[in-house]
Amino acid sequence: MDLPGLEPEVPDLTAYDWIIANISGGKDSLAMMYELARQARAANVMDRVVCVHADLGDAEWPGTRELAEEHAAFFGWRFEVVARNGSGLIDRIEERGMFPDASNRWCTSDFKRGPVRTLMTRLVRELLAANHRDQVRILNVMGLRADESPARRRLLAFVHDGARTCPCPDCRRRRTISDEAKRNKRPVPKKDKIRHGASNTLRHVDTWLPVHAWSTADVWSAVWASGARSHPAYAAGMPRLSCVFCVLASRPALVRAAQLQPDLAARYARVEKKTGHRFRNDLTMAEIIAEAAATPLRATPVACWQG
Ligand code: SF4
Hints:
Blueprint: E1 18-22, H1 27-42, E2 49-54, H2 64-75, E3 78-82, H3 89-96, H4 106-129, E4 136-141, H5 150-153, E5 158-160, H6 169-183, E6 203-208, H7 216-226, H8 232-235, H9 251-260, H10 262-275, H11 285-294
Parallel strand pairs: 1-2, 1-4, 2-3, 4-6
Antiparallel strand pairs: 5-6
The protein binds iron/sulfur cluster.
Iron/sulfur cluster binds at residues 100, 105, 107-108, 111, 242-243, 246-248.
């Protein structure tokens, strides 16, 4: 089914060897899959899509990984799980002695971006083993939306994920400008800076956000149109899935999460106590738990993320 008014700018999907759908099991991810499937069918490249789920372990809502797998199967796509080597997110917070925050989101780079790049490496190797001779072209597709936060509003729906070792003309140009500026001890203009993306000599990676301009209502329309199952946390009023206690979540979302997952909230509170670092500058997990205990549990939706 086509949803009116939601026609995104679509890159030429046939120009990619692999199309990686980053899936979380959440509603935006499902809407992205729905739109990607529509476009991939039209371009006859459904067989190039691989779903990847970055597993955050016990920081996630129960059943999230299984639901992500179910979503991949629903569209008939290959499913891969990646995770950081070593401890899970909550243990890592304890090891580092600090929670992530909006300006230092090491959780995303360590537990999502980095592990997804290991899948890219594997997929490139698969093609090279099958005698693919050129740089492998990968389209990295995500369900991020402008409506979610000011930071996401600033993202472009389609960008090249360039890097120093990428041989494409734009990355070469940036490298030349940067090397020259370094020799002359001059600063590099922001627009010419070398990027630190996922591309390299073996792979050319572009990022596409097919539902970037979609509203929450658009997303739910696509979820319902898809016919796939959504996570029960939404029916309990949660506006987003991902980590149960995301440092970027709104206060009402965190309070609702603490009501729904009290044991996990208690675990975060213990980490907070042990490290002496607050869950968030403006809000401790102890305060969230206290507010959760003093507030009646409702199933009405709560306010979304703010980060
Ligand atoms: S959901 Fe929030 S806490 Fe979890 S990895 Fe993403 S930004 Fe970090």
